[in-house]
Amino acid sequence: MIQIFGGPPAGLQNAPHDVRIIAAGHQVAVREVNFSTVHDKDSLMLAFMAGLGLTDRFGHNWDALYDVLTDPESPRKRLALVLYDYARFRSRRANLCAQLESVLFDAQRTAAEQDRDLWLLIEEADSDPRHW
């Protein structure tokens, strides 16, 4: 596998094995968002809230998610979002997934414009459970 953190983020990418270890070597912060219990927009926003460690002040909408991911005041210049169980979510909720991907890709582009990196990594439930 090509070293994922050696190049710029490029849309959705498969998470490498031992993503946390590899990310640490490249000074990339890792946050995990678990999609296994996401069934609507509310539960999706709660999954991001939990995965990103957000407070109750998080707005639970697309604009708020975009703002969190592109916050120029964030101390993280390099962030990898590991989207756990994402393929199954995509097959269950295609419309919601399309809205989410629009926000994530916009945030990824904006991060690049801010000289930041935002990787969007997919890891499936049947992969190595020791990561979770």
TrEMBL record:
It comes from the Bacteria. Coiled coil: none annotated. Pfam families: Barstar (PF01337). Residues 29-122 form the Barstar (barnase inhibitor) domain. Signal peptide: none annotated. SUPFAM superfamilies: Barstar-related. Belongs to the barstar family. This is Nuclease inhibitor. The lineage of its organism: Bacteria, Thermotogati, Deinococcota, Deinococci, Deinococcales.
